[in-house]
Every structure is written in structure tokens, then in C-alpha cells.
Amino acid sequence: MSFAKYLLPALAATQLAFASDSDSCGDVTIKTQSDADGIASCSTLSGDVTIDSSYSGDLTINSVQKITGSITGNNATQLTGIIAPELESIGDSFSLKECTRLTQLSFSGLTSIGEINWEALPALQSLAFTTGVTDAGDVLITNTGLQNLQGISLKTVGKFQITDNTNMKEININNLQNATDLVNIAGNWNKLEIDLPNLGTAYNMTFRNISSVSMPSLEKLKGQLGFWGTEFETFSAPNLTTTADLTFNDNSKLSNISMPVLQKVNGGFVVSRNDKLSDIDLPKLTTVTGAIDFSGTFDTLNMGSLEEVDGGFNVQSTDGTFNCQTFKTLKDNNTIRGTYQCKATTNDPTTANGKSGTGTTSSGSSSSATSSGAASANYAVPATGVAAFFFAIAQLI
């Protein structure tokens, strides 16, 4: 009985101490550095870290190795840096918005983030992610001062949207193998170079305002692949076999398209307003489930294996030496199942919906070529307007 007399108060004190420690390792709002120092005893913080908009200066989070929730900082205009030397993982999102003086993100051990969502960080020019983030669900980076994505070394990503970062000079993610949602790269520095050497599969990919793109391992896309207003001269996809809608529109320096093993386009295939394009080489293309709509100044066109075009066929060029009779034969034998139009040499090439097919001429024509079951294309597709893209297709069927 005497032992129990002393044991019970001791157990009660232990429980109180545990509860107190547990409480200090939950959600925390950081207004000053002392608030951050208050969680330094937590190796794991089971909750969210919210950086108050009033925070000023550098913020250091010591000792914490794991945050199960998120790190959020919105409108913290006096925040200049976040340093977390021991932090290895953020279970939920890492969200920073309108932190206009933030110049430093130093996370030397960070490898895993649920989602990166950074917006309006104009002073942030580089990342100090020494080990490298290899695991993240979505990556959304908009309107920052970043020049590259060094320190983000993902193998798989969901959404990958890098937009309006006007200092972004290169995107090089050697480890990336699979993108399961929209990849949208637009509005960054107009000389942006993209290198994704090991990307094998993806869903939707759209590119604007880039000077080069390398995806030598890309084999399959379930969704669209589109290029608008780029600065690259050659596009080569040596291993691409299958994609959905495929678009090359208004790429002023593009002179060559090479997809030597492309076999199937599950949707519409559009090439227009690429005034320096001379060669379109598609020797293995057998099936297009939508429409083919090529217009411009290209000289050669190789589609010698074509067996099925479920939609319409519109090919018009100012300088073509290709033989339209070859394609007329495909129409006559019902390989091309929709409407048909082919002009190898015309002064005014137009798209299937009557718009000018070059960047130097304009047409008042309002004719359109549509067909039953055809998938056409909208030529003013917003960078993130995938739904609008397919809606426009539906209107033209």
C-alpha cells in the first residue's frame, strides 16, 4: 500500500508531462523566433506550421525532423528566409504565397514533400535543398525569381506547373521518370531550356515560351502533347510511340519535326503557323483517331505507313513537294474517313476551320472541314485550359 501511495502520483506526473510535450508538438503559429524555438524539443511535429503574416526576418526551425502536416506562409511580406537544417519530410503541402522579400529556403536534409505550392516569391532566386527532394505529389511554382529547380530531383510527379518565372533559365530533372497529371511550362524566360532525359511516360504536357526541350526517353502519353509559341528549332522524340492530341502551333523557329517511331495519335494532330518548318517525318504513323490538320510552309511530309484516319484530313502548304495523290488514294480507299483537302502548293494555306496556317499571311476564309467522329483542334488553347481544349473539339465534331 505504501508503494502504491508513491507510485500513483508519479504516474500522474508522468502523464501530465507527456501531455504537455504532446501539446507542444502539435499545430503551431509562428509570429516570432521564440515561437519556433518552442518546438525545438520535437523531433516530429504532428500538425501544421503556420507562419504569421507579421513575421519579420529569417525563421529558423531547429531539431524538427518531420512535420506531418503543412508549412504555410501567406502574405508574410517581411519574411526573408526559412532555415530548417534537420527537417527531412513535410507530410502535406509546403505553401508560400506573397512573401515578397523571401530570399532563402535552406533545407539541407529535406527529401519528401506532399505538395509544393509557391506563388509570388519574386526575391527567391535559388534553393538550398542540399540532399534533394525526391518525393513530391504536385509541384506548382508561379511568379518567383528562381533561375532553375536545382534541389528538386523527383522520380515521379503529379501536376508539374512552372509558370511566369521570368528568370527561369533551365529545368533539368534527371531522375524524373513519370508524370501522372498535367505538365505545364509557360510564361517563363523565353530562352528556357528543358531537359528531362529519363521521362518515359506522362499524361498531359503543354509548353510555351521555351528555347529547347529534350525528352529522349518519352514513350507514351495518355493525354495531349502541345507546343505553342516556342523558340526551339528542332523537335525530336525518338522513342515516342503513342500520344493523344498532338499540336505544334505558332513556333516561329521550328524547322524540323522528327518522331520516327510514333505509331498512334489518339485524337487530333495539328501543325500550323510554323513558318520555318521544312520537314515533317512520321514514317511509322499508322493511326490517328481524330483529324489531321497540317498547314504552313513545310516542304516534305512523310506519312508512308498511314492506315487509319477516323476524322478529317486537311493538309495545305505553300512550298510542298509532297504528292497529294498519295493521300487522295487513302481517301478513296476509306483510310481517311472524314472530309478531305490537300494542297501541296497554295499561296494561302488555311487550317481546317479556315484560319491562316502561316504567321505571315491572313485569310478571310471561314470554311471548315469537319467529319463524323472527327477530333479537330482549337488553335488558341490556354496553357492550362485542357477542359476548354476538349470542349472546343466537341463543338467542331
From TrEMBL:
Record carries keyword Nucleotide-binding: no
Subcellular location: Secreted, Cell wall
Extent of the signal sequence: 1-19
InterPro entries on file: CWI-Assembly_Regulator (IPR051648), LRR_5 (IPR026906), Rcpt_L-dom_sf (IPR036941)
Region (Disordered): 344-368
Low complexity: compositionally biased ranges: 358-368
Record keywords, A-Z: Cell wall, Glycoprotein, Secreted, Signal
Compositionally biased intervals (Polar residues): 344-355
Pfam families the record matches: Ecm33, LRR_5
Protein name according to UniProt: Protein ecm33
